[in-house]
Amino acid sequence: MDLKNKIALVTGGASGLGQATVEAFVRKEAKVVILDINEDKANEIINNLGNDNVMFISTDIMKEEPVVDAINSIKDNFGGLHIAVNCAGTGYPGRILGKEAPHPLDAFKFIINLNLVGTFNVMRIAADLMDKNDPDEKGEKGVIINTASIAGIEGQIGQSAYSASKAGVIGLTLTAARDLARHALRVCTIAPGIFDTPLMQLAPDKVREPLLESTQFPHRFGKPEEFADLAVHIVENSYLNGETIRLDSGMRMKPR
């Protein structure tokens, strides 16, 4: 699918991987809607881009009504939707049995709700609007890109909630691609390794350095622009479907 003049939404588009994706899509002349809760940062990005084809909608992706309202607003403002990229998410460090008590159940539920349920919520409602598109010259109506993590495959100690949520996103990928095939919609997932995002920048050196040691080539943290480049490629390569693509320089996470 050609990005030019297409309508895209990016959850978590006000920072990190989502911000880089917004910027990359704008360079490809797409119209982009940022779904996030950080209005100040989203507006700063929009002002820096200086582009009338970017808008922000404050959205809690964990709830049905705000996402329905956001998708309806996209339809009203742009007439439709072709691409959805789910980047919103976070982590929670904690062992199943901590020093003081078992892992907080509310924290586990929150991570699952944001990273997994939120992704599914946006995917299903966005797909409903995409299904109303006329197929393009390649016969497709839309593309959905979700964000997992290599932690969903080989999570470390203290990543139970995060790893479970991202494993769920990986598990959704092929099923969603099969569900949506008859609607001419593609679904792929990107599973990043360690990226130089605001979340990773907050981590102490004792956390960052062992992770960096496990990278192969290039031996460094990933750049958000590299995630965005892959998102662009997935949209433009119509034969990519049902795949979870690792983007990690060949690293394999160690147990600790």
Uncertain runs: none
Overall CATH architecture: 3-Layer(aba) Sandwich
Look at the helices and sheets and give the structural class.
alpha/beta
Count of structural domains? 1
Q: How far apart lie the N and C ends?
A: 41 Å
* Rounded mean pLDDT score: 94
CATH class bucket: Alpha Beta
Number of helices: 9
- What is the CATH topology assignment? Rossmann fold
Number of strands: 7
Question: What is the fourth-level CATH superfamily?
Answer: NAD(P)-binding Rossmann-like Domain
Shape assignment? globular
In N-to-C order, the SSE pattern is EHEHEHEHEHHEHHHE
Cross-sheet strand order for the largest sheet: 3-2-1-4-5-6-7
Give a short synopsis of this structure.
The protein has 256 residues and is an alpha/beta fold. 45% of the residues lie in helices and 15% in strands.
Write the layout of secondary structure elements.
Elements: E1 7-11, H1 16-27, E2 31-36, H2 39-49, E3 54-58, H3 64-78, E4 83-86, H4 105-130, E5 142-147, H5 151-154, H6 160-180, E6 185-192, H7 198-201, H8 205-213, H9 224-236, E7 244-247
Parallel strand pairs: 1-2, 1-4, 2-3, 4-5, 5-6, 6-7
Helix pairs in contact: 1-9, 3-4, 4-6
Description:
This protein is α/β, with parallel strands linked by helices and 256 residues long. It has a single domain, classed as Rossmann fold. The protein is built from nine helices and seven strands. A seven-stranded parallel beta sheet has the order 3-2-1-4-5-6-7, with helices on both faces. Strand 4, helix 4 and strand 5 form a beta-alpha-beta unit. Helix 1 crosses helix 9, helix 3 packs parallel to helix 4 and helix 4 packs parallel to helix 6. The N and C termini lie far apart (41 Å). The mean pLDDT is 94.
